[in-house]
Amino acid sequence: CYTIPSRWGDKMIKTPTRYLSMDPKLPNLSHLQQAAEILRKGGLVAFPTETVYGLGADALNPEAVEKIFIAKGRPNDNPLIVHVANPKDIKPLVRKIPDVATTLMELFWPGPLTLIFPKSDLVPNSVSAGLDTVGIRIPAHPVALALLKAARIPIAAPSANLSGRPSPTSATHVLKDLNGKIDAIIDGGKTSVGLESTVLDITGQVPTILRPGGVTYEQLEEVLGHVEMDPALIQPELNAALKPRAPGMKYTHYAPRAEIWIVVGTEEQVAKKLKSLVDENRAAGKRVGIMSTEEM
Ligand code: AMP
Ligand code: MG
Question: How far away, in angstroms, is 72 Cα from ligand 2 center?
Fold first, then answer.
């Protein structure tokens, strides 16, 4: 049983989380039906996508969508991505499909590219966090696709972690954050990309990356000729100052619970300190990995 501080005051949510496991190569039909039924009734289901695990709810049911924000402790001005099974499913959700979208959908869907469209009235404001746009993608994961097809509804799904924590790439990660707060989880093994989808705004003159992710700048540039990066990606303080176009980027991401050391000094001093930290931690029985630039 958990107390979640939220805009609704401290809310208690207590749900036994149903654990549904399946081989992604051979999705289990009975488990899929159970998960689809929960979603159709307005419940929350975590499921694997090729990027990270998502926390899904019926995108057209405002009450179901609200539960996502409560379970994650997510600020309500951070919009959700809507997942669909087929390109034709976006029609009722958007006011306009720009030409460039058709090309991008053909090339990158299913895949880790979220496109921002002008939203239709069918999409609740809670999904878009009050913006008049909606982010949509088709995930490239057999379990996610099978679930979308079984549920026959668009599924709003942010990453299935507590707000601010790293995005989950396995069911174990999801349960650490959300066990008891969501109705079910589909365990389909580890996700392959391990990084969120790229968010691309195609509502303006020049396609603009609002969040870097699984599809690279270079891949988009090759197809589109010209792509811009949202200025707030380079100067995050802009996101706080202006009405943010990439609202999610103003919040802390990927904050692991770990001790941080900042080592300052000449290259030699830094190397020496690193070595002593490695030795110390190894002596304490820990395994140590070092990620570094080539120069170091
Ligand atoms: P998450 O799935 O947790 O990675 O969160 C979804 C992210 O997609 C948000 O934090 C935003 O950065 C982005 N996003 C979703 N919808 C929109 C939208 N309509 N406009 C701009 N960015 C969006
Ligand atoms: Mg997230």
Answer: 9
